[in-house]
Amino acid sequence: MDNKIILVCDGTIDGIFTAIFDGFVIRNKRYGQKGERYRDNIHICIENDYNEELFAEYIPIDTDYEKSFKTAVSIRKKLGEEAYMLVVRALCHYETDRATIVFGFLVRGFKAGSRVLEMLGDKYVICAMELSRKALNEAHLFKGFLRFKDIDGTLYGVISPKCDVIPLIGDHFDERYPNENWIIYDKKRKKAAIHKKHQQWIIVANNGLNGEYLEEIYEKSDDYTHMWKTFYEALYIKERKNEKCQNNLIPKWYRKNMTEFQIKNEQQS
Length: 269
Known about the structure:
Elements: E1 5-9, H1 13-31, E2 42-46, E3 57-60, H2 65-79, H3 81-91, H4 98-112, H5 123-145, E4 148-151, E5 154-159, H6 166-176, E6 181-186, E7 191-195, E8 202-205, H7 211-218, H8 223-235, H9 243-249, H10 259-268
Parallel strand pairs: 1-2, 1-3, 5-6
Antiparallel strand pairs: 4-5, 6-7, 7-8
Helix pairs in contact: 1-2, 2-3, 3-5, 4-5, 5-6, 8-10
């Protein structure tokens, strides 16, 4: 059997989509009619997030936005919008093998069409669905847990999610605050969703973003901070504290960027 082929790309959706495009090209060139036999021989790894294997062939992949666009178009055309969104959400998960799982899902999907969503006995299909579900659940939570501060007319929000939820929550806040300038910054991944009022929101990362500056701004107090303080002073009853119930409703993982819990901890310390 041929050695495993491992494509190494950056962790962005465009980077993974580029690797998926090249993966199908390599699969067709090397295996041809035997492609079905070796359909799971190609893996996709995220750079700086994998352990090297013996006897595997590694191929570095540079992000190509034209290839990424073609991949997105092909998924939508052959599998439908529901499958496309499943793929995007799955790639937003933090699972190390997410790109390989999605590639395996698409290998089956490009053969079966939209029926791939019914192939619940296939491990790649069920794994992709599970990653998608978990990422979607966390994105849903942050739609409610995100706290903005109004600093000089711009709404600032800071989060540290397990999954890359920025691509999944941007449209929600665009619809909710179309007339506001706002920034949602992911401290963990050093990326942000930036919205200028009446315009389409965008994602900015890496060299185009000064994360330390955004975190410094977010440390400032504003009227919302004082309102949360007043809210907790009025409603918090120490004698009726129920830590177990509170943990079920709002897990501790999500509290570190929630204004009310920062204030509460300050009061109790």
